[in-house]
Amino acid sequence: MSEQIKIRKAVKEDWEKIYQLYNSLSDEDLYLRFFHLYRITEEDAKRIASNEDHVTFLAEVDGKVVGEASLHKDGEFSLVVDRNYRALGIGTLLVKTLIEEAKKSGLSAIKFYTLPENIPMIKIGRKLGFRLRFYEDEVYGEMKLMEKEVNINLATSSSP
């Protein structure tokens, strides 16, 4: 890929680019993202860009937003990548960015829910080391972030 991928934190003014990204998605893409067919509104795009109860990162190629990933305060995240820019590592790059953000924020874990047919998201989860649990109607992925520190503290506090 000759274009440069830029990952950056969203700002409020990005809402139109986020809206355009979501409007470029197919019905199937939207179903996989929201677990049902849902077209976002301008207000939804403004909320995504606001970073009020979450943090959103964007992937840009030549100034065009081609990916969006949001991390919520409970550690749950969502991800979407433009169909024309998939299989280029953009989703993986965005999730790695969210993992680093979660660590900086002091979260103990990061997690996602997806549908069993969302193979690209499942592949990202496997590649990055998420513990995956498969259920009939969803897949749950979780990565513990603070486990080592907790284990060290437990070991030292239980010593006589």
Measured as a percent range, the helix fraction is 25-40%
Radius of gyration: 17 Å
Could you name the CATH class?
Alpha Beta
Q: Counting H and I runs of at least 4 residues, what is the number of helices?
A: 6
Per DSSP, what share of the residues sits in E-state strands of 2 or more residues? 25-35%
CA-CA gap between termini? 58 Å
In CATH, the topology is named Aminopeptidase
Q: What count of structural domains?
A: 1
In the CATH hierarchy, what is the superfamily? Gcn5-related N-acetyltransferase (GNAT)
Contiguous uncertain segments of 5+ residues? 148-160
Q: Major beta sheet, specifics? A: 4 strands, antiparallel
Main structural class: alpha+beta
Give an account of the 3D structure.
Helix 1 (15-23) crosses helix 3 and helix 4 crosses helix 5 (119-128). The protein has 160 residues and is α+β, with helices and mostly antiparallel strands. A four-stranded antiparallel β-sheet has the order 1-2-3-4, with helices on both faces. Strands 5-7-6 form a three-stranded antiparallel β-sheet, with helices on one face. It is globular, with a radius of gyration of 17 Å. It contains six helices and seven strands; from the N terminus they run E-H-H-H-E-E-E-H-E-H-E-E-H. Mean pLDDT is 89; it is low at 148-160. The longest helix has 15 residues, at 90-104. It has a single domain (5-157), classed as Gcn5-related N-acetyltransferase (GNAT) (Aminopeptidase, 3-Layer(aba) Sandwich). The relative contact order is 0.14. It starts with a strand and ends with a helix.
